[in-house]
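Entry 14. Two folds queued back to back today. First construct below, sequence then structure tokens.
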Amino acid sequence: MEKTAIQTGAVHARTKSTKKLNIAVAASLLTGALFWNLTSLTRLPHGISGGSGPKVNKTNFDSWCQIPEVASSIDDGLDSSSKFLEQDYIHKQVERLTAAVKVPTESFDDNDDVDIDPRWAPFDDLHATLQELFPLVHGKMKLDKVNKYGLIYTLTGSSEELKPVLFAAHQDVVPATSVEKWTHPPFEGHYDGTYLWGRGSVDCKNNLIGLYSVMEDLLSQNFTPKRTIVFAFGFDEETGGKRGAKTLGVELEKQWGQDNIAMILDEGGMGLDILGDYVYAMPGVAEKGYIDILLNLDVDGGHSSRPPPHTGIGIMSELLVELEAHPYTPRLTHDNPFRNLLECQAKYSPEQVEPWLAHALAANEDEGVLGARLAETREDDRFIFQTSQAADVIWGGKKVNALPESVHAEVNYRVSAHDAPLENIKEKAVGLLRPIAQKHGLSLNVFGTIEEPTVQSIGKLTFDLDQPLEPAPISSTSLDNLVWKLFSGTIRQVFENIPSLQGKTVVPVGDIMTGNTDTQHYWNLTRNIYRYGPGREGTRLNAHTVDERIEMLSHVEAMVFYYDLIRNFDQATDL
């Protein structure tokens, strides 16, 4: 998965944010300030009941964060999912995941097509490894290969009336750089008794091998589903999925049509955050949009001993400074999933929420005012509700005594839904930079439209764009949505019963992702897309960087979830 600062590291950023606030919150509570409202922020007993109920009243704390009942026990004659937590099974998974990590399926930004670029060859090795590790999957599921390395597995159910469920993962990993800094070689798959080390152990061969393993186990028990099960595994997610998931999405839509998949589960989300007696399970139910604006400035060159008032690099610098002087405004809108998370924490973990924030939410404070203050106090979380803008690439000039003739810059935007559509982002950038271009006598090429200056032109500024992607549709987390109700109820069923979290209440709440996954190519297939790799804090470390590793207990706990989720959806007839 494409990671961002919010989604990497040993501790989730938003958990760190709330922990930093503990002292301040405690002091505020001692003063008795705002006490009248905080008294209603009491915890509920562990037997929390869900239900659709009436529309949430934002001034009534009791109506906030309605969570589902624990999914019912499964009576289908299959083995209990608890077997995956046994040491023998953990060791089996170490062998399987090690075998996958050892295959260096790196994807690069400059990869060419699969039939041309020899760097795709390791995917042939991975496919051979998967076939050897999972003979039942390859013997009993229909396999379609799309664009050579994309994989679609189908286990056809007995009922044509039930919509299929689709499980996604990707086979590729980001390149392993700074190899000399790794504690263990990145493609060795070293297991130290707790963690398995290696590139892809977290992102996301963990998910890939977990899904294969669960299906291999089900098939070994002669599992014959009523509901069709589909696996879709891309091979270039780390570079946008244009050869992998994009082609898989086209094929899947040909096979199933639009909005005819009950649910898609892919990697992502914020795992499991423990706050006292409560565990917040945060699958991603939305993704921010994405756009790169490319700026190309062409001016006359010459000898550096006779420079103009501003060189091309100077002008480009002025353009970038102007953009950075006008950041986007944070807004905590009502449909932003992060707002629901805050309401859940205010209800179940009030000591973790600043008193002013609880009151602002209850008072339905202006979205902009609330967003601005929240951005100041929770810096790590601000880009969950604010469009980000980052000048990431710049180059120009070839020699120190020669004026640069061409200067290039790239500015990346991760777009919040309240700033969409992307046309707004383009218009703002052009509106800010046009006066500077005119001041310097530059002609403009604005995404293909030519604008000539009113004075003699000294050069040309060209606006272009790359990888435009609107914000993803938000998958509903209302209990009226029976798919979410069963999905989130299964999260409670599984994680309230695993030994590492026993005795705690799990609160499933949708989250928004600042990065993008392969699901960007699957929007037409379903309205229910969940991006979730369940993992406790500190169990999935250093994705995309040195010493990536996963706690193997966390790996098999995720398998418990996959196993019971497949079975629960197979028993449901109303979805």
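Second construct, same run, same settings:
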Amino acid sequence: MKKSYLLSPGPTPVPERVLLAMAQPVIHHRTPQFSKIFAEAAEKLKTLFHTKNDIIILSSSGTGAMESAVANCFAKGEKVLVVNAGKFGERWGKIAEAFDLKVTWMNITWGECANPADVKAALDADPEIKCVLIQATESSTTVKHPIKEIAEITKSRDVLFIVDGITGVGVFDIPMDDWGVDILICGSQKAMMLPPGLAFIALNDRAWARADKVKNTNFYFNLKRERKNLKDKTTAFTPAVSLIYGLREALLMMEEETYPAVFARHVALGKAVRAGTSALGLKPVTKHLSEAMTGVFLPEAVNGKKFVKVLRDDFGVTFAGGQDSWEGKIIRIAHLGYFGEFDMVIAMSSIEMALDKFGHPVKFGAGVGAAQEILRDRFEVK
């Protein structure tokens, strides 16, 4: 028997409580029973997003919510600024171009974060730019962007600030209304502790005002239609009923832990992973650290693609490797969502053993011990 461990930044493990909630018999989505569950989940999401605005729940991946933000708020030919610091920043630009928007690319070296001064300079240079599109965490590089600081720049202008928080919401605090984020997006398969299949999007009054002026040619991702249905505690089309069951349970679990404790756990687990990988001589890919995941460069003699494959197929531990120019060079270790202290110990132990198998000199226990030193204070024995 080989036990499997999922330590990728998405999908992430799903708690047993959530799995059991989703295992309940499927009910019809046009019933008072479903409306009650749906409304409870939608209301709890508002607390997580720190917003008074409605949260639209879509049956799609997070990319569906990204597309809906673009399709509903901009007309063909309008200009948008895309902060491109990795694969998912690039995705923003590709979506915008698919809807015939004029994209101004702010290309950032992988491993670096957006500089708010550069964003301001780009907006000053072109007053026709209607929006800034960015990630909270750029998952491909593990970089955390300065969302609060950029929101300070956009909220005083006629420029929407749209944040892909798929690897952010539920990981660390993003108070949407207080910061002035106009549209905030999330997906189900990361910090939300659910399987893939749901996306969440919140628009503030500025964003809805734009959406009301734009003729939306997108049939399925029509946010005005979804907002109207939300008032009746339902969706425009058939929702993922079982995932909504799971969503309500996952949000209840986070409330029971409390959001400050959830965020603090992510911080502590991240510190443990960085201590462990540092003790093994693995260098971080960025100094702009996210609470969601840690990326490290592997030794030059180690083939990263094979390394990740051996961990998955031989050891039963799934991490994420690198993409594009970082393919075969890095490993990404998740610590968001349904992860605890001993998951990080397993992560360090498996990396030590894999490095040894690849002939890299390793002192067994170095990474594990360094992680434990960070995590020991997380436990109070009564």
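Quick look at the second one. The domain at 258-378 is CATH 3.90.1150.10 (Aspartate Aminotransferase, domain 1). The longest strand covers residues 129-135.
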